[in-house]
Amino acid sequence: MNKKVFISYSREDTSEIRALVDNLSQINLDIWSDQNISAGDNWANLIEENLRKSEIVLLFISPRALASEWVMMEFGAAVALKKKIIPVVLKDTHIPSFLSEHKYIRANSINEAAEKIKETLCKIAEQDASADEKKSRR
Question: What SMART domains does the database record attribute to this sequence (predicted)?
Fold first, then answer.
């Protein structure tokens, strides 16, 4: 499962997200987040480019993320680009109505969130492999 995954989150949640990404890096994913941006990079262009290249967007929802203009813009762009969006609810955050059409992951800890994300990504990989197999039989 070598999926390109874009991580969208509030910078104020960086420590939690960093721990979660470290946990997810144990499986075969091509993960991109703004932590990959270096000094001197055009960060807006890199965000747009990597969002376009991604297959899946992990949208980390927290009160701070819901207040973040950038997280909301990334969500809007992901919708417009028809990306597979997996909202991951951090803390005890109310789910806004604009996310209600997406099945989301809710977890009480970073480790629980990582395990649920891994399970979801494995299901997606299985569904994709099954669809590919059906196409090749035609």
Answer: TIR
